[in-house]
Amino acid sequence: MKVNLSFAEHSKVPILEVKNVSMTFGILNVLNNVNFSVPEGNILVMIGPNGAGKSTMLKLISGLIPLQKGNIIFRRKRLNGMAPNRIALLGITQLFQDIRIFSNMSVIENVMVGSHFNAEANLLSSGLRLPRARIDEHRLFETARRHLSLVGLEQKANINPTSLSWGHQKLVGIARALATGSQLLLLDEPYSGLSGLEVDNLNELILKLKNQGITSLIVEHLTDILMGIADQVIVLDHGEKIAEGTPAEVQNNKRVIDAYLGSGQPAKEERQ
Amino acid sequence: MSFSVQDIIERTRKISPVDARYLAVGIFTILIMIIPLGAGAFPNTVMIEIGFYSIVTMGLIMFMGFAGQISLGHAALFGCGAYISGILTTQHYLSPWLALFLAACFTGGIAAAVGRVMFRMHGLILAGITLALNLLFFYLVSGLSDLTGGAIGMTNIPPLSLGQYTSQNILFNYYLLWVIAILLLIFSLNLADSRFGRALRSINTYDGGSEEAAQVLGINIMKYKVWVFILSAVYASIAGSLYAHYTRIIEPNTFMIQFSALVVLMAIIGGRSSPWGAFLGAGLIVSIRQLLREFAPMLIVGPTGSYELIAYGIIMVVVLLFLPQGLFPIIKKAILKRRPGFS
């Protein structure tokens, strides 16, 4: 039975569910029984001090680290044991903190890698440059150009990405991720190394993507930047979820303040 | 209507990267085709040797330069082509052309089977495995004397023929080999500029790629590594079959680690970022070897074979120190003056 949902109802349907996920590296407990869900079309921000387990959580979702315990479900499909490339084909793409731009190809070729599986030409037709391969190349090129245009870098298509500013390289990374047809973007500290203006531009882009129905899960430790755009915030500390809610709710949470400022801070304030 | 040289240069600059690629191949083909017209038998023999090495090195460049994998065992793949062609034609009396085709299929099949296991490893371990495979191949062909002729090798391998021409004729062999080399060059250049080539470059961790980044973009890195290994094996096998039908004698020592090291050297010197590097590397190394063979005995008394190895060592160190990307990027830059998009 097909059910038509309103926008408000639609935004409550989880695109991703993380259930009882735990992770250990040797004797180190990196994540401990973490549960949360990401509603479709929302911007969920995961914050926490360094070493809280945020980046590990992203790698578990994208499949780069095999899941040890618990379940990760994307659109009712379990991702446990699935290879990263298969997870990407389902519609989840990760953007790394250090971007990992392919410096051995141009900006547009980087984005074309993102949409490579939308092509049908096999090895032989590509090598012989048969009509099918030429049509594919044209389509991939146009798709890549459209995504570069979305992030405002169409004019930089033919240059090497390493000659771009760090902020522009991040945008190439996002265009490359979008070219996969991603429905859920996993952004690992996307604001690191950006100037004030670049932060504003990135926020604007993330909101633009939200309006197009793309869900974002952002991991960050710079909390102030994100409070304006986040629909929901999750706080991790030492591998445990210590708070969840709207930005305003989380900002006033005592455990969150303790985690960020140290438990001695309120006591000091009380003495004063 | 007349054009100045500047006009012609400007017009040439405006052509698309694909057209520029075909233009470069066209000029190269013309050069290759006219060389025998003015050269004697000796230069043609040297050019044939360059052709064999170029084909193997081209496959290696796709494997090593594009995909960032390491192989120290390409002599085994070259040898597979040579021995399978030899066995099928001398013991089963198949047509040399059919033998060449079957050898390429069989070698590709071996590469597919080995690759699936081999690519669970990375870096030095992978290099070690390929080296071990080369040794294994050497001892297999030396040991299976009923099939391969053992240490003595195989003789009387029939030549390739086309109508009245056979590959015993130097000129016929020259054109046959170089037509195949140029067709494989076009195939490699097209592939480099396709989604296959981009996927390979994306997993090249030694030259700006990232396996993790490629994986999260949906690239099945194991599949691409195995495919490029198969392709590289097929190139080596074609060269091996052509070699067997040209020399008509093969023996295990030809397919030892020295050959594998030599083609790696050619790929590094020529430039591993483009199939063109194979021709530059093979051309330079074979020419230096011929010059040393010619002039070293005049200058030094006694056996001079080891001087080649010393020369290779010096060239390798100099290139890695001063031209880590090899000769091709320098030449490309000089010719095209930073024209983007040309592979």
Outline the structure in words.
The complex is a heterodimer of chains A (272) and B (343). Chain A is of the alpha/beta class and 272 residues long. Chain A contains twelve helices and ten strands. In chain A, the strands form two sheets. Chain A has a six-stranded mixed β-sheet, sandwiched between helices. Chain A is globular, with a radius of gyration of 20 Å. The relative contact order of chain A is 0.16. Chain B is mainly alpha-helical. Chain B has one domain (16-256). A two-stranded antiparallel ribbon of chain B has the order 1-2. In chain B, a hairpin with a 2-residue loop joins β1 and β2. In chain B, α3 packs parallel to α8 (170-192), α3 crosses α13 and α12 crosses α13. The longest helix of chain B is centred in the last third of the chain and has 27 residues, at 221-247. The A-B interface holds A 62-64, 83-85, 87-89, 93-94, 96, 100, 102-106, 109, 112-114, 116-117, 119, 121, 123, 126-129, 133, 136-137, 140, 158-159, 176-177, 180 and B 187-188, 190-191, 193-199, 201-202, 204, 207-210, 212-221, 227, 231, 273, 340-341.
Low-confidence stretches of chain B: none
Oligomer: heterodimer
What is the average of the pLDDT values of chain B? 90
Label the structural class of chain A. alpha/beta
Instruction: Characterize the biggest β-sheet of chain B.
Output: 2 strands, antiparallel
Hey, which two chains have the biggest interface?
A: A-B, 40 and 33 residues
Termini separation of chain B comes to: 33 Å
Strand segment tally of chain B: 2
> What share of residues of chain B is helical?
over 70%
| Largest sheet report of chain A | 6 strands, mixed
Neighbour order of strands in the largest sheet of chain A: 6-7-8-3-9-10
| Radius of gyration over C-alpha positions of chain A, nearest whole angstrom | 20 Å
What series of H and E elements makes up the topology of chain B?
Answer: HHHHHHHEEHHHHHHHH
User: Average pLDDT value of chain A?
Assistant: 89
Count of extended strands of chain A: 10
% residues in beta strands of chain B: under 5%
CA-based shape of chain B:
globular
